[in-house]
Amino acid sequence: MKSVMKQIIFSSMLLLIIPSSAWIFGWQWQLTHADSNLLKGLFGVTQTAGYSWGILTCILLSACFLRCLRFRLKVALQFLVLLLILMVIGQTVKIIMKNQIKEPRPFLVCLEKKHHIENKNFYSLNIEPRTVLLKRLLKSETNAPTWLKKYWQAETGFSFPSGHSIFAASWALLAVGLLWPLRYYKTVIFLMLWSSGVMISRLLLGMHWPIDIFVSILISSLLSILSCWVVYRWIDPIPLNKKKVLTLID
User: Fold this and answer.
1) In whole angstroms, what is the distance from residue 142 CA to residue 125 CA?
2) What structural domains and CATH numbers belong to the chain?
3) Ranges for the Phosphatidic acid phosphatase type 2/haloperoxidase domain (predicted)?
4) What pTM does this model have?
5) Residue 24 φ then ψ, to 5°
6) How confident is the prediction along the chain (250 residues), in pLDDT tens digits per residue?
């Protein structure tokens, strides 16, 4: 388990390069002309970790994990319950922190500065009036494509931390802890790249600040370590034909 923990921590540090680089180079999101095709691609990536497509992502990744781990039916059900608990805890932590810290999203800050609106006044409104006000503010904006404006209108909540990043990083780091020891290297690398893509998309779409992503990765790291401990302690994910890799996780 110590080896697994080290692997998760190392992988978390790799993911932290994304928000850390934004800090180091002084990158800040701005409402300027951007490559519409690039944004559209990033939007597709971000949707895989959103509420609607996120459910399909959960189903596909759960099936992938079960195929790799080859559990018996009873153990598979226990593992699925653990995955559900992991995702629920991550999103619950996100909701609590958002409502306590109340950090506005980058695109909202830019609009507020441009139109001289206090974010306190904006967030004092209910969701429907917020959407109406945001729609009015975005009418005069020519730097953002129409589809992105519609997306912003539906995302009037707080910024810190990033629920999308917690979701994606939790899956990626869980794969590091459970699938890497079983030598499913390509699967783990794919999930790490996908998770990185989700985080980059949240930054470039104006949805989150670097600190949001940074803290989200830390939250995911803790949740993944705890989940792997539960799996190795109570579920035992090593199937009989994979016993030879036990030495990798001792």
Assistant:
1) 26
2) 2-20+35-103+163-248 (1.20.144.10), 105-157 (no CATH)
3) 80-228
4) 0.89
5) -60, -45
6) 788 899 999 999 999 999 999 999 989 888 776 667 888 899 999 999 998 899 999 999 999 999 988 888 888 898 999 999 999 999 999 999 998 998 999 988 888 888 777 767 788 888 788 888 888 888 877 778 888 888 988 888 899 999 999 999 999 999 999 999 999 999 999 999 999 999 999 999 999 999 999 999 999 999 999 999 998 888 765 544 454 444 444 4
Residue with token string 């910024």: 159
Contact 184, 231 (CB under 8 A): no
Structural tokens at position 181: 């020891």
CA end-to-end distance (rounded Å), the chain: 6
Q: What is the DSSP letter of 157?
A: S
